[in-house]
Amino acid sequence: MRPDPVVCLDFGTTKTLVAAGDHVLPLGRLDRWMPSLVGLDHTGAILLGEEADLADPELRIRSIKRAITKRRNDIRDTAIATVRRTSADELIVALLDRVADRTAAQGVDLRRPRTLAVGCPSVWDSGQRRRFVRLLNAAGIPASLADLVDEPVAAGIAWLERQSLSGVTPLRLVVFDMGGGTLDVAVIDVLGPGEDDIHLLAAVGRAEAGDTLDEAIADDLARDLGLADDDPEVDAPLAGPNFADPGFAHPDLDDTDLADPDARRRRDLLLDAARRLKVALTTEEEAVAPLARDLFAPITEVWYQRPRLEAVFAPQMDRAVELVHVALRIAHLSTGTPDAPPEPAPSPEQLLAGVDVVLLAGGMSRVPYVTHRLRQLFG
């Protein structure tokens, strides 16, 4: 009797995927992935996935996974609160439950014991990981802490499994995984073709990625429209690589209730416009997003250019580059031996020169500026 294949669950900030063995299961209505979206309708019923994508923007939360990263459970969005009281945990469990239902419909039952691997950000500490396991269990998925795999490590191992490593080892692999909510960087040494020859040297993370860029673009648009004072207050991202700090207040999980409901609506719509512009500018040099006439009149659309996106993205990428340097320094320390005599610390240039492969993962890696900055960094 053949053993069940390993089942891998990737609960992402933007998308959720499940793979069994070498096959990604078709979870979505139109795509293999299911949108990691939650919301409420006006009766208080929970909307999930594609249904939530069609919901009123005021009653939709795009990045519910960030509630774990930010260690929050209360949903303080005033529009949702007017419908009914709910919590991030309730919405995450409902989403995971829907994922399990759709996976079962494809012949793979996540709710029965099996070999399971579940991705999680490197930035999550033990408390955040325990909370995630508790929510998985509440959805009937029998996961444990031992089943969690750091997302950049999973990406690196998946890539290595598809390579012919004979004759090309040893090599050092850097995985740069920028998704919707977190940036994770892993450094992996491959000493030979066997599983025992793969060594994880560093895995670090920072809780700012695609959502942070959406915020920056929305802020830029608000300044153009003369609405900067209407923006919800946000915490400025830390300049240094503080891996435990959530980095900024995400508006979908913000604890600042705006007195003016129109200000909240404008903010939600500007964030939607920012997301559309970000995606369009991955392939175009200029893009346009429509605006609601009743809230932004006489302006009904905004145009945005790729150089402008790159300008607002640059400070965040500066911090991403610093995180790469941190990962490489940790990896260098991990390769030393206790009895070896101390050696001069290598320069940043020497650490970069020791990298053989840079693997880009996560949706934000499609943004051309990410590739541009990493090519500048690694030459």
Which helices and strands appear, and what pairs or packs with what?
Elements: E1 7-11, E2 15-20, E3 23-24, E4 34-35, E5 38-40, E6 46-48, H1 50-53, E7 60-61, H2 66-69, H3 78-83, H4 88-105, E8 116-120, H5 126-138, E9 148-150, H6 151-161, E10 171-178, E11 183-190, E12 198-206, H7 210-224, H8 261-280, E13 286-290, H9 293-296, E14 301-305, H10 306-334, H11 348-353, E15 357-361, H12 368-378
Helix pairs in contact: 7-8, 7-10, 10-12
Summarize this entry quickly.
The protein is an alpha+beta fold and 379 residues long. It contains twelve helices and 15 strands.
Notes on the structure:
It is built from twelve helices and 15 strands. The protein is an alpha+beta fold. Strands 1, 2, 3, 4, 8 and 9 form a six-stranded mixed sheet that branches. A four-stranded mixed sheet has the order 12-11-10-15. A three-stranded antiparallel sheet has the order 6-5-7. The longest helix has 29 residues, at 306-334. It is globular, with a radius of gyration of 22 Å.
Percent in helix: 25-40%
Strand content: 15-25%
Helix count, per DSSP? 12
Can you write the helix and strand succession as a string?
A: EEEEEEHEHHHEHEHEEEHHEHEHHEH
Give the rounded overall mean pLDDT. Answer: 85
Which residue ranges are poorly predicted, with pLDDT under 50 across at least 5 consecutive positions? 230-258
**Rounded radius of gyration (Å):** 22 Å
Structural class: alpha+beta
